[in-house]
Design goal:
Elements lengths: L9 E3 L5 E5 L7 H12 L3 E4 L9 H4 L4 H17 L5 E6 L1 H12 L4 E5 L7 H18 L4 H31 L8 E6 L4 H13 L5 E6 L12 H13 L4
Parallel strand pairs: 2-3, 2-4, 4-5, 5-6, 6-7
Antiparallel strand pairs: 1-3
Helix pairs in contact: 3-4, 5-6
Length: about 250
């Protein structure tokens, strides 16, 4: 059987301006690498942790919880602080966007960018997203279609507690959104489900930041950082970061 090659965390050292990049549920740091390389060329220090179990088989993936992944995100933020970075912006995609908001609610964050942040309506699609992850993983391992279907069935029930934990995280982050006061950009893709537009707009209303805005990218789906609109997305994020009080 083919062995999975697990992506790693990455750290691109630049100047004193640090950007923490947080990837999505069931994905890896590869989501954030293109954006990070772009920002690094502009001088920014970029750091992206890999949540435990991500990039691994479902058996390994399900050994961890949403709480574990939140600890990974929070530890990455504190790691940058321990390295001497006193001003840190955070950028997150989907689950990473939830963690970005949670960090903004609890930590001294300079500014945030979120992409494709789910709301409670997304709960009905979490099982489907996990099924796609199982399918993708076992295709890479060379499994047949019949084997993939069997694996999806076997793992789906075991994933139910994890998916319920994700719903709780979504509820908690949205409920505490008024605690966010720093500059914020809430981005979503025009090719994604409409719920992500609703989520961004609701969050924009809830945030207590004086500098906040939403934006739609018409040719972007859920993984906005690898979409057709990636160049405009990168340009907009860079322009926003340049406005922060570094």
């Amino acid at each position: 059987m083919i062995k999975l090659i697990t992506p790693k965390l990455f750290f691109y050292e630049g100047d004193e301006r640090a950007v923490l990049l947080l990837h999505s549920f069931t994905s890896t740091t590869s989501d954030m690498k293109r954006l990070a390389k772009f920002l690094h060329k502009q001088g920014y220090t970029c750091y992206a942790p890999l949540y435990r179990g991500h990039g691994e088989t479902p058996e390994v993936f399900l050994q961890y919880t949403v709480r574990d992944w939140w600890e990974d995100a929070k530890s990455a933020f504190h790691h940058l602080q321990a390295m001497g970075y006193t001003k840190i912006a955070v950028i997150g995609l989907s689950l990473g966007g939830l963690f970005t908001l949670k960090l903004a609610e609890e930590q001294d964050v300079l500014g945030i960018v979120t992409m494709s942040v789910p709301n409670e309506e997304a709960a009905q699609f979490l099982a489907l997203r996990f099924a796609h992850y199982v399918e993708r993983t076992y295709k890479l391992l060379g499994a047949s279609d019949e084997e993939i279907v069997a694996q999806q069935r076997d793992w789906q029930q075991q994933a139910e507690p994890l998916l319920a934990e994700l719903v709780t995280l979504i509820q908690d982050v949205h409920a505490k959104a008024p605690q966010v006061k720093m500059p914020s950009r809430l981005l979503y893709g025009g090719e994604d489900r409409p719920l992500y537009k609703s989520s961004a707009e609701h969050l924009a209303e809830a945030l207590h930041s004086a500098n906040k805005a939403t934006k739609m990218y018409p040719h972007a789906g859920h993984l906005m950082t690898v979409s057709q609109d990636v160049q405009q997305l990168q340009t907009d994020i860079y322009a926003f970061l340049e406005t922060l009080d570094w």
